[in-house]
Write a structure and sequence with these properties.
The structure is a single chain. This protein is of the alpha+beta class. The protein folds into four domains: about 1-225, Glutamine Phosphoribosylpyrophosphate, subunit 1, domain 1 (4-Layer Sandwich), CATH 3.60.20; about 230-380 and about 515-560, Rossmann fold, CATH 3.40.50; about 385-465, no CATH class; about 570-635, no CATH class. The chain contains 25 helices and 17 strands. A six-stranded antiparallel beta sheet has the order 2-3-1-9-8-10, with helices on one face. A hairpin with a 3-residue loop joins strand 8 (about 150-155) and strand 9. Helix 2 (about 85-90) crosses helix 3, helix 11 packs antiparallel against helix 12 and helix 11 packs across helix 14. The protein is globular, with a radius of gyration of 24 Å.
């Protein structure tokens, strides 16, 4: 895991001294263990790299790395977890290696197979390879976009790329500016991140499962190299028991591959089903199998705690830990300097977030302090197995509106227990309101959910009508899918998961910690997408296949747990306690009144009224944070 950067002056002028170095070093936290800057094409092209040493800690892993008598040069961020298997195949074909890194394997694979090498990789990556013979720059991103690749391109002038958007603030002779139209779309509920855009003008992303090639004087175009729709399996076992057995086999192997490391590995444990499953399988692997190239210090769990708040999941995490008997570190997320932490974290995230990311980054800060460099996390399965309440509400409304009351009642029985007991009456009231709206043909589904469940006044429709995303260049065509499948595809590839990848990549890397996600092993994703709906949710549980696969392999109370909390900062609590003075001061500041971005002129008064009457609602807090977030990253 590292930070990558590159600049190509397309007008033929040489890069001035320090331009590449400053651009690359702006993301120093991504790679504190080393740096490299190399130039090509008469100094018109430069590749930069910040190294976080994980595989082969020696100088042999230095980047940019060369291969084939310096024909190829790479700057690479990520991990190809099956690199040893690919290396053996390449050695049999006559290739020789100088290091024990996956980086060199990626280079050799590209030299041998060209862009077809990407289909052989199992992992997460964003990289650029310069071919000094063909004079081409090849840039690629993993299947799901776990690793970031941002770029700007002005024909005849410049092509520049980096791991984070904040690097472009340090790009000499480049003026970065906010795209307010995209910001407003985001606030309205359109997830722009999955469209290949950012919130900045002319700063884009290589889309997941895509690559780009550029030759001087040519055109820059993206080409898709992988599409989940082309890999749906037809040989799925018939019974749930058999499906669960195969699911577990793939999942266990995904965890095994992701334990390969020359540095210490820990597990981020919340006490929820997903992270507890990863933790339990990892611990079992370490105890029962003779694993190759796994660091001795790889058994600790790290748990974020919020004493006294509903967001605190410590007792659930303790149950998961008690099952294994493994060591754990509990990280109290109460901060004495909360305001400054939020400002600094938000500046480094350089994005529009649903809430301060401080509690998330705090987990990885605690890991780093304990000497951990790699974290095993449980991200990805919520989106594929109806893990979010919004998704379950949508399923309820969809089946109810179709007149399938048996199915909608089943979905309702899954939904209500996901709430805390004190919230279940309100959730049932939401259900009752949805049934009254179901007969209104003018109310689009996503807008209904947003208004009724979230109290959001903005009208958006990300599931049923994706015209706004098409206008952004969103590459996925959902028109031929049924609604149930379409929701999962969109949550995974467009809406929620792309933003989670961005947020956790930055949360980990700002603390120089690599995050690995076993649920995003492409073999497991393929398997989940090939399963029938009935294997994902039934009359009692969502994430059914995962729960079935983990029988007897984790704490039973966690395996059957229905109440969902999720990791995140308790922004509603913070805004009504230690941050209240800061929030109110901000909305009465000259900076805000002169430069409002998403709120109207009466918002400050509405906020004050909520504070006075002690009835500040979630939506007002959400909008207040979005405005503050934008001012922090643009001031």
């Amino acid at each position: 895991m590292c930070g990558i950067a590159g600049i190509w002056h397309l007008d033929g002028t040489s890069l001035p001294n320090g331009k590449l170095e400053n651009f690359t070093d702006s993301i120093l936290e991504r790679g504190p263990d080393g740096s490299g800057y190399d130039y090509f094409e008469n100094n018109t092209l430069g590749l930069g790299h910040r190294r976080l040493s994980i595989l082969d800690l020696s100088e042999a892993g230095h980047q940019p790395m060369y291969f084939a008598n310096r024909r190829y040069a790479i700057t690479y961020n990520g991990e190809v977890f099956n690199f040893e298997e690919i290396r053996a195949e390449l050695e049999a074909l006559g290739h020789h290696f100088e290091s024990q890194t996956d980086t060199e394997v990626v280079l050799a694979a590209y030299a041998h197979w060209g862009e077809r090498c990407l289909t052989k990789f199992n992992g997460m990556w964003a990289f650029a390879i310069w071919d000094n013979q063909e004079k081409t720059l090849f840039m690629a991103r993993d299947r799901f976009g776990i690793k970031p690749f941002y770029y700007t391109y002005v024909p005849g002038s410049i092509l520049a790329f980096a791991s984070e958007t904040r690097a472009f603030k340090k790009l000499q002779d480049y003026q970065r500016s906010l795209d307010e139209n995209l910001v407003k779309l985001h606030v309205q509920g359109v997830r722009i991140h999955g469209s290949g855009n950012s919130i900045y003008k002319n700063i884009f992303q290589i889309l997941p499962g895509h690559y780009m090639k550029y030759r001087s004087g040519g055109e820059l175009n993206q080409k898709r190299w992988w599409n989940i729709a082309d890999y749906i399996r037809k040989d799925i076992p018939k019974t749930l028991e058999e499906q669960a057995e195969e699911f577990y086999s793939i999942f266990r192997d995904a965890c095994r591959l992701r334990l390969i490391s020359d540095v210490s590995v820990g597990t981020a444990l919340s006490g929820g089903l997903d992270s507890s499953s990863v933790y339990s399988v990892v611990f079992d692997l370490l105890q029962k199998e003779h694993l190759h190239r796994v660091h001795a210090n790889s058994q600790q769990a790290f748990v974020a705690t919020f004493p006294g708040l509903l967001a605190d999941e410590r007792h659930y995490a303790e149950e998961a830990i008690s099952f294994t008997g493994g060591p754990a570190v509990f990280l109290d997320q109460n901060y004495g300097n909360l305001r400054e932490r939020i400002i600094q974290d938000t500046l480094k995230f350089d994005a529009l977030l649903n809430g301060p990311i401080t509690s998330v980054s705090g987990i990885y800060a605690g890991m780093k302090k304990a000497g951990i460099t790699v974290s095993m996390d449980g991200h990805g399965v919520d989106e594929m197995l109806y893990g979010y309440r919004d998704m379950i509400y949508n399923l309820f409304y969809y089946f109810y509106n179709k007149g399938d009351y048996k199915q909608s009642k089943m979905i309702q029985d899954v939904l209500i227990p996901t709430y805390h007991e004190v919230e279940q009456d309100a959730a049932m009231a939401n259900i009752n309101r949805l049934t009254k709206l179901a007969s209104n043909p003018l109310m689009k589904l996503k807008a209904v959910i947003r208004r009724v469940v979230k109290g959001n006044p903005f009208d958006g429709d990300a599931y049923i009508n994706h015209d706004s995303l098409v206008q952004l260049g969103e590459p996925y065509d959902f028109s031929g899918m049924n609604y149930v499948d379409r929701m999962v595809y969109q949550e995974t590839f467009v809406d929620t998961l792309p933003a989670i990848f961005r947020d956790f990549d930055r949360a980990g890397m700002m603390n120089s910690v690599e995050i690995r996600m076993p649920f995003m092993d492409w073999r497991l994703v393929r398997y989940i997408f090939s399963l029938p709906f009935s294997s994902k949710i039934n009359g009692e549980f969502n994430k059914l296949i995962l729960r079935e696969s983990m029988k007897g392999k984790m704490a039973e109370g966690i395996r059957t747990r229905k109440h969902k909390i999720g990791i995140g900062s308790p922004v509603e609590h913070w805004f009504q306690t230690e941050l209240q003075e800061w929030v109110q001061d901000f909305f009465h500041s000259t900076s805000y009144t002169k430069n409002r971005i998403i709120t109207d002129k009466d918002f400050a008064e509405k906020l004050d009224e909520g504070y006075r009457n002690k009835n500040l609602d979630k939506n007002t807090i959400h909008i207040a944070w979005q405005e503050m977030n934008l001012h922090i990253i643009t001031d």
